[in-house]
């Protein structure tokens, strides 16, 4: 299956997402904040990056902006998770290079469907 970077600062949600996606056969690399995510992204190859919008040290938006400046990472698909589900926020993320947006809260099965759709 796919190798996925998950950057999420909420421990319970991080565990729920990682357990759900690992049960689907995906390999996950976990980051607890934006700085750690960016460091791992620079060192590894991923099929998909899932970023929480609001994280300590660097936000998901800041990670996305820096990621899209890396020539060898521009093509990696990015899914943003956020409790900020206003249309303007979604457009801001897409304009910065996010491939899709998933508002919180969400069901684990909706996340699985979204991930599979993005990896197809």
Keywords:
single chain; about 120 residues; five-stranded parallel beta sheet; 5 helices
Mind explaining what this structure looks like?
With 120 residues, the chain is of the alpha/beta class. Helix content is 44%, strand content 21%. It has helices spanning 11-23, 34-43, 60-67, 87-96, 108-119; strands spanning 3-7, 27-31, 48-52, 77-82, 100-103. It has a 5-stranded parallel β-sheet, sandwiched between helices. The mean pLDDT is 93.
Q: What topology, given as strand order, has the largest sheet?
A: 2-1-3-4-5
What is the terminal separation in angstroms? 11 Å
Instruction: Please give the count of helices.
Output: 5
Helix content: 40-55%
Number-wise, the strands total 5
Q: For the CA atoms, what is the radius of gyration? A: 13 Å
Shape label: globular
Arithmetic mean of pLDDT:
93
> What percentage of the residues does DSSP assign to strands (E)?
15-25%
Largest sheet: 5 strands, parallel
Low-confidence stretches: none
Derived structural class: alpha/beta
Instruction: Give the ordered list of helices and strands.
Output: EHEHEHEHEH
